[in-house]
Amino acid sequence: MLQPGYILRKAKPTDMWAIVFSIIRARLDASQLKWHQFLVIEHNGSLVAFGQLRNFQAAQELGSLFVMPACRNSGLGTFIIQHLIAESTQPLYLKCLDQRLEKFYAKRGFVPVRFEKLPTSLKSKFYFSNFRKNFFKAFVVFMKYQDYS
After folding, report:
1. Are 42 and 7 in contact (CB under 8 A)?
2. Which residue in 86, 5, 85 sits closest to 94, CA to CA?
3. pLDDT tens, residue by residue, 97-115
4. What does the buried/exposed string (b/e) look like for 109-132 if buried means 16 or more CB atoms within 10 Å of the residue's CB?
5. Domains and CATH numbers, the chain
6. For a tag on the chain, would you pick the N or C end, based on fewer CB atoms within 10 A?
7. 3-state secondary structure of 6
8. Coiled-coil stretches, from where to where (predicted)?
C-alpha cells in the first residue's frame, strides 16, 4: 500500500518527457519507450517512480524501473514491480546490470536464467548484453519471474 499522497496510475502522454529524461540520466535501457506501457507513481504532481512492461513474442520484459533518488528504499520500486507482475500476461524476464539489483529482484521472485534459456524474441534484444558479459566479463544477469503461488 502506498503512503498517503502517493498515486499509482497509468502513464499519460505528458509524462513521457520526464520518463525519458530520467531514463537517460540513469543510463537505463532507452529502447521501446512507449508511454502506454508505463505505470507511474506521482507525489505532489511530480513523478517519483515508474516502470514498464515491454512486449515480445512469447515473453514480456520488466524494464525501465526507476525511483527518484530521494524516494529510494521506501518500497515504491517493489510496489511498481508487484503491479507490473500482476499485469503481465506472459513469462516475465528482465536484464540486470548490477549485483545489488540482482539481489533486489531475487527478493521479489526473480531467478537467474541462462541466455540460452531465454525466448528467441529476447535473445535478439539481449544479444549485445550477452556479448558484453562474455567478451568483456561485465556483470550481466538475465532473470525470470518465478511464480511461487
Report:
1. yes
2. 85
3. 999 999 999 999 999 999 9
4. bbeebebeebbebbeebbeebbee
5. 6-145 (3.40.630.30)
6. C
7. strand
8. none
